[in-house]
Amino acid sequence: MMSRKKKAVVLLSGGLDSATVMAMAVDEGFEIHAMSFSYGQRHSIELDCAAEQARTCAKEFKVVEIDLRAFGGSALTDEIEVPKHGSVEELPTDGIPVTYVPARNTIFLSYALAWAEVLGANTIFIGVNALDYSGYPDCRPEFITAYETMANLATVAGVQGQKLTLHTPLIDLTKAEIIKRGLDLGVDYAKTNSCYDPAPDGRACGHCDSCLLRLKGFADAGKKDPRKYVQ
Question: How many domains are contained in the chain?
Answer without folding.
Answer: 1
